[in-house]
Amino acid sequence: MNIWESFVLALSSIWNHKVRSILTMLGIIIGVGAVIIVVAIGEGAKKQMTDDMFNADDNAISLNFEQTTFDETGEMEWIEPPEVTSEQLLQLKEVPGVKTVIGTNSGWGNLINNDKTAEMQIKGIDNQYFIAKDIQLLEGRRLNTRDNDSYSRVAMIDSVTREKLFKPDEDAVGAIVDIDDNPYKIVGVYKSTLPEELLQFDGFSSGEMLMPRTLIALMFGSREIEEIEVIADNPETLSETGNAAAEKLTAIVGSEDGYYQTNDMSEFLEEFDKFYSTITLFISSIAGISLLVGGIGVMNIMLVSVTERTREIGLRKALGATRGQILLQFLIESVTLTSLGGLIGIGFATIVTTIASQFLPFAASMNPIVILIGVAFSSLIGIVFGILPANKASKLSPIEALRYE
Question: How far is Cα 364 from Cα 33, in angstroms, rounded to an integer?
Answer without folding.
Answer: 14
